[in-house]
Write a structure and sequence with these properties.
Layout: H1 3-9, E1 12-16, H2 24-32, E2 37-39, E3 46-47, E4 50-51, H3 58-74, E5 80-82, H4 93-102, E6 105-109, H5 114-117, H6 126-139, H7 146-155, H8 162-167
Parallel strand pairs: 1-5, 1-6, 2-5
Antiparallel strand pairs: 3-4
Helix pairs in contact: 3-4, 6-7
């Protein structure tokens, strides 16, 4: 991957984007190599090796992960990889703002798994969406419900850039 050479000379924040079961976390771990770190909001919900998601704690979990990212960037960790779904640009904005403040380059990466690259595209038919939902439902390791996966497919914003992230606003912001 071409990000690696740049990451060796310039600290890099990698924003992973992908739905549950897409191969995002596997790709992130491969990219981290021996020097990088992968940070996921899902880590907050790991209790004694078991994933125990609580939707009421999601806001706290995101803040917790953002703080970890800030600490790792302050230490100069390279690359810092954010392994969240990042369905819409505003979801990654706090990380990009930190990276800008700390002089990190920004890369946006999606998984290269065939079930992601071959099945997920703009303008999918309802049948194609259902097929992708089936695949992701079977592959995701955290037991994310089908309806949540389908909702994420429907809300996915394709081809976002780091500038799209900078310019984005959360739904509750005006």
């Amino acid at each position: 991957m071409n990000w690696y050479k740049k990451a060796q000379t310039q600290p890099t924040l990698i924003i992973m984007r992908g739905l549950p079961g897409s191969g995002k976390s596997t790709t992130a771990q491969e990219m981290a190599g021996e020097t990088g770190i992968v940070l996921s909001t899902d880590d907050y919900f790991m209790v004694e090796g078991e994933y125990q998601f609580d939707p009421e704690k999601l806001g706290v979990a995101h803040k917790w992960n953002q703080e970890r990212a800030k600490q790792q960037m302050a230490l100069g960790k390279n690359p810092v990889i954010i392994d969240n779904t990042n369905v819409q640009p505003w979801e990654a904005r706090p990380y990009v703002q930190m990276a800008d403040e700390m002089g990190y380059d920004i890369q946006i990466v999606e998984p290269s798994s065939p079930w992601w690259t071959e099945k997920f595209k703009e303008g999918m038919s309802p049948e194609e969406m259902e097929d992708l939902t089936d695949v992701l439902d079977q592959r995701n390791t955290h037991g994310v419900p089908r309806d949540i996966i389908r909702n994420k497919i429907e809300n996915w914003q394709h081809n976002i850039t780091d500038q799209d992230i900078r310019d984005s606003k959360a739904p509750w912001e005006k």
